[in-house]
């Protein structure tokens, strides 16, 4: 009889120790979930800020290009209505595209923030409730309160169900993080988004040949204009100034700086200009000193080296200012054509942010999955303990039933 009671007491102690152990494991897992939840929130927010920040920079670049084109349009309008109309159509289309991009970014930002906060809040509320229940369960186990065990069984069953639901959500979050980072890394390595739906927004950016061709066309236009201007200036100088007049050689030697390289690429390289070349931004002041006014005698203009006719001054100045504005806008245009802002952001995400982002999300999912299993086992032990307490009446803080204590 005594051996049976002793065996029962040992068995009861083992069960309670196991319940305490499972409780402690649940507390540890809940703490890890809190850490992983906070880490995943921070990593997700950093990643989204990087992408949406790049999209914001792209919007600013588009706006800068639009303003540059509008200035060129206004300059050329009195002299070249066809080009002005083309620029007007281009800026209108860019404004429509800019509005579409702004709307898409705002909607995506709002949806991403809402989803991110929903996942974070759901995990936080659940873990907080779970911590309270686990601590309460330890107290009820210590007191051997039968009605408390019934309460724990119901609450643990509810928490287990919610935990499995959150496990599913966090699993999808984990898969989404894995696939998104895989898409970013694939784009960074191959610069090819045609086979990936997530990165389809960058399909035009990955088409390097198209953007290079577009920029080469702009470079060719400026290169051609400067070459024609140099040829015309030299021709006018020869007409006004005799070739044997050595004092005026400077007018024939100095050329306008062409900041674009030789064909076929026409790459923008302002540092390649010769030291004695005339810079584009210096042309207005130089041209005014070389212009022969219509009321000034031809011989006087020739003596002073003023070989440029006033009749061509206005139109020439308009083209000079438009070219100057185009060159000023060119870096923004080049960045926009190559989607540099987005590519740099994707490179940063792929090389520096994806690994910790995936690790934090995977840790969150693994911890909440383990906690779900832990809660299932704990609920089963609570059921066993409740039946045991119902059959045998325990004193508070005791592992031995009252009827056994009385027999002793």
Automatic annotation (TrEMBL):
TM stretches of this protein: 17-36, 118-143, 149-169, 363-384
GO cellular component terms, A-Z: membrane
Keywords: Membrane, Transmembrane, Transmembrane helix
PANTHER family referenced in this protein's UniProt entry, alphabetically: TRANSMEMBRANE PROTEIN, TRANSMEMBRANE PROTEIN DDB_G0292058
Protein name: Uncharacterized protein
């Amino acid at each position: 009889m005594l051996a049976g009671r002793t065996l029962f007491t040992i068995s009861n102690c083992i069960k309670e120790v196991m319940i305490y152990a499972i409780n402690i494991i649940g507390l540890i897992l809940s703490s890890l979930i809190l850490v992983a939840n906070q880490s995943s929130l921070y990593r997700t927010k950093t990643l989204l800020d990087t992408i949406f920040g790049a999209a914001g920079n792209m919007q600013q670049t588009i706006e800068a290009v639009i303003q540059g084109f509008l200035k060129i349009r206004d300059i050329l309008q009195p002299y070249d209505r066809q080009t002005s109309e083309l620029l007007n159509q281009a800026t209108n289309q860019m404004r429509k595209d800019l509005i579409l991009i702004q709307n898409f970014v705002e909607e995506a930002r709002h949806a991403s923030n809402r989803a991110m906060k929903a996942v974070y809040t759901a995990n936080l509320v659940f873990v907080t409730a779970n911590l309270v229940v686990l601590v309460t369960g330890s107290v009820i186990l210590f007191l051997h309160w039968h009605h408390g065990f019934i309460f724990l069984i119901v609450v643990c069953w509810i928490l287990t169900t919610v935990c499995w639901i959150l496990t599913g959500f966090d699993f999808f979050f984990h898969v989404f993080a894995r696939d998104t980072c895989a898409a970013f890394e694939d784009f960074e390595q191959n610069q090819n988004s045609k086979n990936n739906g997530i990165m389809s927004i960058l399909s035009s950016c990955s088409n390097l040949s198209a953007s290079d061709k577009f920029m080469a066309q702009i470079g060719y236009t400026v290169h051609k204009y400067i070459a024609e201007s140099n040829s015309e200036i030299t021709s006018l100088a020869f007409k006004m100034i005799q070739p044997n007049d050595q004092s005026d050689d400077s007018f024939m030697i100095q050329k306008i700086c062409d900041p674009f390289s030789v064909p076929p690429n026409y790459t923008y390289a302002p540092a390649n200009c010769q030291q004695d070349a005339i810079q584009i931004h210096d042309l207005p002041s130089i041209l005014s000193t070389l212009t022969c006014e219509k009321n000034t005698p031809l011989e006087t203009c020739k003596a002073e080296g003023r070989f440029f006719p006033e009749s061509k001054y206005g139109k020439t100045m308009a083209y000079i200012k438009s070219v100057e504005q185009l060159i000023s806008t060119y870096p923004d245009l080049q960045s926009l054509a190559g989607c540099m802002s987005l590519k740099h952001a994707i490179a940063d995400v792929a090389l520096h942010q994806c690994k910790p982002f995936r690790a934090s999300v995977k840790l969150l999912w693994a911890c909440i999955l383990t906690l779900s299993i832990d809660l299932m086992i704990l609920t089963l032990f609570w059921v066993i303990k409740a039946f045991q307490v119902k059959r045998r009446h325990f004193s508070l803080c005791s592992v031995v039933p009252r009827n056994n204590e009385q027999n002793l």
